[in-house]
Design a protein that fits this description.
It is built from four helices and eleven strands. The protein has 202 residues and is an alpha+beta fold.
C-alpha cells in the first residue's frame, strides 16, 4: 500500500514538473521564431540598400518593366515622356529637397513586347545606398578609384558648382563627383551601353 502511494506521489510530481516546463518551451520557441524574423528583416534591409553595378540599385532592377517601379515607389513626383522613353523621379517624403531616385526607361518600338517600357538607367543621391565595397554618396573619388576604372563621361552644374560624371563601362556604373572630390550621386546602367551611360538625367 505504501509503495502504491509513493508511486502515485511520484507520478503527480513528474506531471507537475512537465506541465511547468511546457510554457517555457513554447516561449523559447516563440523567441527563436521572432529572432529569425528579425534576422530576415535585417538581411532584407541590407539587400534593399545595395548598389549592384550593371544590375540594380536596391529593389529597382535594370531591364524590368518600369510599371514595377511605380508599384514599388508609388506615383512619381515628376515624369517626362517622349519617343518611347520616359524619365521618372521620386523624392524622399515627396519633398523636392529630399533624396532623389530617378529612373530612365525605354520601350523598343517594333519589338514583340514594345508595350513594355524597360528600366535602362537608375540614379540615386542617398548616402544609405552602398556598393559591396561600401562605396556611394559621400565617398571620395580616390576611394572609388581603388575599386573602379573611372573615365570622365559628362558633367553638369548644380547649386554648388560643376559636377563631373565618371563611368566604369565594364562594370556598368557611374559616380557623380562634386568640386570637392566627393560623390553626390550614383548611377547604374547596362554594361558597355554608351548611349545610356552618357545620358544626362538632371
Amino acid at each position: 500500500m505504501k509503495n502504491r502511494m509513493k508511486n502515485s506521489v511520484l507520478l503527480l510530481c513528474c506531471a507537475a514538473l512537465f506541465a511547468c516546463k511546457q510554457p517555457g518551451q513554447k516561449q523559447n520557441s516563440a523567441d527563436n521564431t521572432a529572432n529569425a524574423a528579425d534576422t530576415a528583416k535585417a538581411k532584407t534591409a541590407v539587400t534593399n540598400k545595395l548598389i549592384t553595378p550593371g544590375r540594380s540599385i536596391g529593389d529597382i532592377v535594370l531591364s524590368e518593366d518600369v510599371a514595377n517601379v511605380s508599384q514599388l515607389l508609388g506615383r512619381p513626383d515628376s515624369s517626362d515622356a517622349a519617343m518611347g522613353s520616359s524619365l521618372m523621379v521620386w523624392y524622399a517624403g515627396h519633398k523636392a529637397d529630399g533624396y532623389r531616385t530617378s529612373v530612365f526607361a525605354h520601350r523598343k518600338m517594333g519589338d514583340k513586347d514594345e508595350i513594355i517600357s524597360r528600366v535602362k538607367k537608375i540614379l540615386i543621391n542617398s548616402p544609405e545606398y552602398k556598393t559591396a565595397e561600401g562605396l556611394g554618396v559621400g565617398s571620395t573619388v580616390d576611394e572609388i578609384k581603388k575599386s573602379y576604372n573611372l573615365k570622365p563621361t559628362s558633367d553638369y552644374k548644380n547649386k554648388d558648382g560643376k559636377v563631373q560624371v565618371y563611368t566604369d563601362l565594364d562594370k556598368g556604373i557611374s559616380f557623380e563627383i562634386d568640386a570637392a572630390g566627393k560623390c553626390v550621386g550614383v548611377v547604374v546602367h547596362q554594361l558597355h551601353d554608351t548611349s545610356v551611360a552618357y545620358l544626362n538625367m538632371h
